[in-house]
Amino acid sequence: MRSTQWQSRERGTQIVEMAVALPLLLFMALVVIEGASLVRTHQVLNNAAREGARFSIILTNKDNPATGFNGTNAIKDRVVAYAAANGVTITRSNVTINQCALITSPSGLTYSTSLVVVQLNYTLRYLPRIPFTSAPTTVPLAGRAQFRNFYGCN
Questions:
Q1: Residue of 88, 3, 17 whose CA lies nearest to 46
Q2: Which residues have a Cβ under 8 Å from the Cβ of 58 and sit 6 or more positions away?
Q3: How far apart are CA 84 and CA 75, in angstroms?
Q4: What's the average model confidence in pLDDT over 106-125?
Q5: What is the number of other CB atoms lying within 10 angstroms of the CB of residue 149?
Q6: Is residue 7 predicted with pLDDT exceeding 70?
């Protein structure tokens, strides 16, 4: 008789445990999904900046006012196309290029470099919709790459 009374008291505990644990597990899953997406987007921005810097150091892509060639626009288009091919939408205004940035080596020599910075305000999809979180709706992300030029700057 006692065993049946004990079983009847324990019958609802699994449902109560699931009711407590399930929201926590769902929240953790959303955090992992959101974080993975944010890290992936940041990696794409870094790679897009690297692609732009690699493209910018080539002499044929340097701005040339004498011929009217605007290499900056070609580089920005390359960065935008790279990001789009990897599922991240940016515009030319998100890309900043300096083809005559300077860096100084530890030995004191100064080198001309191309600096490409890609910025994006990443919109969080899931976390801001959860009532008890204070997650921001957007997170600023930036990718940056700087390569030494094959040409000098005037």
A1: 88
A2: 150
A3: 14
A4: 92
A5: 19
A6: no
Do 122 and 154 form a contact (C-beta atoms < 8 A)?
no
What number of residues does the chain have?
A: 154
Give the model's pLDDT for residue 83: 97
Find the helix or strand (DSSP H, E) in which 120 lies: strand 110-123
| 93 within 8 A of 106, measured Cβ to Cβ | no
pTM of the model: 0.81
Residue 95 CA to residue 117 CA, distance in Å, equals 6
Over 70: is that where the pLDDT of 89 sits? yes
Backbone angles phi, psi at 109, to 5 degrees: -75, 145
Q: Specify the residue for token string 């999809």.
A: 125
Poorest-pLDDT segment among 13-17, 42-46, 129-133, 146-150: 129-133
Q: Which of 107, 126, 16, 103 is closest to 53 using CA atoms? A: 103
Give SS3 for 98: strand
